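ok so dumb question maybe but i'm new to this and my supervisor (M.) told me to 'just get the structure for Two-component system, LytT family, response regulator' and walked off. so i did the thing. is this what she meant?? sequence i used:
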Amino acid sequence: MRTLIVDDERLARNELRRLLQAYDQIEIVGEAVNGEDALEKIKELRPELLFLDIQMPGKNGFEVLMELKENVPEVIFTTAYDEYALKAFEFNALDYLLKPIEPQRLDAAIQRLEANEPNERPLTQGSSAEPEQKILGEFDQVFVKDGDKCWFVTLGKVRLFESIGNYVRLHFDHHKPLILRSLNALDERLDSNVFFRANRKHIINLRMIETIEPYFSGGLVVRLKGGDRIEISRRQAIRFKELLSL
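this is what came out, is it supposed to look like this??
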């Protein structure tokens, strides 16, 4: 895929070019150092994919896209700022990578590009009935919206999903937003190698476990980073031990 890197920082362009060397399907046809340069290079080189910075001298990344009338390439935004995430999705971006770009996140973006899938869907939208939905792993990022507040969250940072009636509460950092989604629907979407259904009300992030203790009737209790203590039911404790055993 013919690819143009657009970024005003030379070191950022060089690092992205280095990371992209691992992908034979990506052909870097050029680089642009600002918005005006990007528009000229897009017209000249006809790229199929842009890695597009947002904050640049002159025209920003959004203004560049607004000036493209036809033959608009696929776009993966690259930026050091997460506050533009919501607006990025309004431009149908394939992905939104925060600098410094992590190889795992770049790999997820390239896989999504190959599969011709849309970017991470907001957890507040969509239906569990959608066919062949992508399994979400720890490096995937999602929008979470609760009232007037919204977050752009890497799922690996979510330590706990808690069922609250028809809602699910996400626990990450010091935030606990609610989303209108059933725990069962999330359980079907989340990578079972990372996120484990502990009981009827909780899904835990296995990477966030600090301690494990025996509990009543063959169950277990785990303490997560952040202090949450979650019971693993007796039935699930069997699966838990099998999953974590050598």
